[in-house]
Write a structure and sequence with these properties.
The chain is of the alpha+beta class. Helices cover about 35% and strands about 30% of the residues. It contains 12 helices and 20 strands. Helix 1 runs parallel beside helix 4 and helix 1 packs parallel to helix 8. About 0% of the residues have low confidence. Bound molecules: flavin-adenine dinucleotide.
């Protein structure tokens, strides 16, 4: 058993954990991020880097370097819903540094944060370290227990942060109460090659199903929403019928739908929408998907995870430096981020019902006049764009960069 002690231990090297780890280390705080996988290479994760996250990169002085990583830029999102074409969002309306969404593989994004984190001596990232339990003493979480290739690990810290995603072990072991919000759908992810002549619509929706196509340069990352718990039935009907369903929604895919050879080429994402009633306990706080599982509508999960990390760093840097982190500090994080989370979950449900009513099984075909109204009036379009691109209550980096202090002193 290896044992050690640190200031802050972050469980999970996803967007929330890596961004928080980077921000704390940048402010001179000893931080250890534990990630259960050996690398960041996982397919079909959220790959959208929103204008609000690009704004954070800009505030950190990293934007130019970040955009050197491979990505596509999406400025306008159009959809065909029940035969009507509408503009879902137009980033030209935004007042952010970048008026586009960067489509970047999540491993590039996480690898970039890890690379930047390593510039600071107080940043530590341990891969292949899976947290399996929490250490509690007199009602306070004082550390974690983990499994690593070299054997069990015990680590004590002033603060443990649960950033371990939608199936969070941290929130499970800490007995924080989860409120289920409910999600009527699951998503099947797959990839199909992309041709230069393909239309640039990103959503095709009709009669109970919706297909989202994310431009990944040489291929489309495709997500088909299906009513909850029907993926099994679909599989039983065979891959042929599944392919036909895809072509029905987006006929131009006919010439390549056979790239889906069998069900191994299709990955099921079980959508869970929930949130913690209380995000913290003495010695522990949860952020990102660990605090609130989001619906895929609008693809805002990463955005929220990053915003949580920025808010948490803004609140925690001083108390962590002073060694005085209290539950009041942790409550401040929830107070700051719960409102945007609740509103976002509500707006997602509204969009699903109003605009994408067809996401639900046998849902009504959306009324053409409603769609035309949404298409033509500027205010709803701007609101949708702002919701997707920036989100509710965007956070700004207020934490210092110790390397700046170093430069000033030398
Ligand atoms: C298939 C799919 C497609 C998606 N598409 C989009 C999209 O297009 N846009 C968007 O914004 N969002 C999308 N999302 C949601 C988005 O990925 C999440 O909302 C976002 O990644 C949340 O970030 P996080 O850091 O909170 O959690 P996660 O990204 O889930 O990261 C958690 C990390 O913790 C690690 N971990 C878990 N348990 C442990 C443990 N016990 N010990 C150590 N490490 C652990 C995991 O390996 C993971 O790296 C998608 C999600 C999925 C699954």
């Amino acid at each position: 058993m290896s044992t050690s002690r640190g200031t802050c231990c972050i469980v999970g090297g996803g967007p929330a954990g890596m961004m928080l780890g980077y921000l704390l280390a940048r402010a001179g705080i000893e931080v250890l991020v534990l990630e259960k996988h050996a690398d960041f290479l996982r397919d079909f994760r959220g790959d959208t880097v929103h204008p609000s996250t690009l704004e954070v990169m800009h505030e950190l002085g990293l934007l130019e370097l970040f955009l050197k990583r491979p990505h596509q830029e999406s400025r306008r999102a159009r959809a065909r819903i029940g035969g009507e074409e509408i503009v879902l969002g137009d980033m030209a309306y935004l007042r952010t540094e970048c008026r586009f969404m960067a489509m970047m593989p999540q491993w590039e994004f996480l690898d970039f944060l890890a690379e930047q984190g390593r510039r600071y001596p107080t940043f530590h990232l341990r891969m292949q370290t899976e947290v399996v339990g929490l250490i509690e003493e007199r009602g306070r979480i004082v550390g974690i227990e983990a499994r690593a290739p070299a054997g069990p690990v015990e680590l004590r810290a002033d603060l443990v942060v649960g950033a371990d995603g939608r199936s969070s072990v941290v929130r499970d072991r800490s007995c924080l109460t989860v409120e289920e919000v409910g999600a009527p759908m699951d998503v099947l992810w797959m990839r199909l090659s992309k041709l230069a002549s393909d239309p640039d619509l990103i959503v095709y929706s009709d009669r109970g199903r919706a297909l989202v196509l994310l431009d990944r340069g040489s291929y489309w990352q495709c997500g088909l929403s299906v009513p909850k718990r029907t993926a099994g039935e679909m599989q039983a009907k065979g891959i042929e019928q599944f392919r036909a369903g895809i072509v029905q929604l987006a006929p131009f895919l006919l010439d390549r739908v056979s790239e889906l050879r069998d069900w191994n080429d299709v990955k099921l994402l079980t959508v869970k929408v929930d949130r913690l009633r209380q995000w913290y306990r003495p010695g522990l706080v949860c952020i990102g998907d660990a605090a609130h599982g989001m619906s895929p509508v609008g693809g805002v999960g990463i955005n929220l995870a990053i915003q949580d990390a920025v808010a948490a760093a803004n609140i925690l840097v001083e108390p962590l430096r002073e060694g005085t982190v209290s539950t009041r500090d942790l409550a401040k994080i929830q107070r700051r981020r719960e409102f945007p989370t609740r509103i976002t979950q509500r707006v997602q449900a509204l969009i699903r019902r109003q605009v994408g009513g067809s996401l639900e099984v046998c849902g009504p075909r959306p009324l053409a006049w409603v769609l035309r109204l949404l298409e033509r009036t500027t205010v709803p379009r701007r609101m949708r764009t702002h919701f997707i691109g920036v989100g509710i209550r965007p956070e700004h980096v207020k934490t210092p960069d110790v390397s700046d202090a170093h430069i000033q002193h030398t």
